[in-house]
Amino acid sequence: MISKSHKQSSNHLQQHRSAEPDCWFSLEKIDAAYHWLCNQRRHYPPDSDIWHLRFHWPRYRTDVFQALSANSFALNPQLHLVKMDGRHLHCWSSIDALVLKLLAWHLGALLPTSKRCTHLKGHGGLKQTVRQVYDALGQYAFVCKTDVKGYYESIDQALLLQQLSPFLPDKQVWRLIYHYVHRVVERGGNFSDINQGICRGCPLSPVIAALHVIAEGVETQEQKALLQKMGCQAFQGYLFGRPCRIEDLD
Question: Which GO terms describe its molecular function (predicted)?
């Protein structure tokens, strides 16, 4: 049951929910991110914090909005989890995942992205990638699939923040992104700083990685010319190549 004071606070929030239509967060956006999160974590185990969040959602909904409005929201350390099959993963808390989803929507509209990143909305999706791969199979002798996990883990954090800086004038967004990049992982009471790469399994990471592709990927005319000289062509996650001699690249 929601207390009387909480009801008054909720009514106050309802009155101001549209005060900043261009703000990257609002009650409507928080609700949308919440429904996304519930769907994403619907199969999580009973001891996961998503069930606590869902049970107490009216209170957390208000708390998240007020914390973001006061510029006091901070990301928690990720949890180091070991799955039944022995795989290790780093998991954001449910509240943090919700806010990161809000940031993903916001940055998705702000950041330039490569058309080769077909996983992004409006870039064609998996069907376009499969079609491009199929169309290129008759032209190239070799197909090499890139390692997405290795790509995420190899990203230089300082360089990434330098690339992001011109697009993030909002100090609150910048602070949250900074701590998303320089994240901390907790395992059994021990805390570790992650100084290389960005995390996987996060709604924000594909957007951030897509910007990094433009900055570090095959986008310039010189890089495209080198690929053509090598007889190669790049698509999302794939590199196509023909046999060539090393001396041809000099």
Answer: cyclic-guanylate-specific phosphodiesterase activity
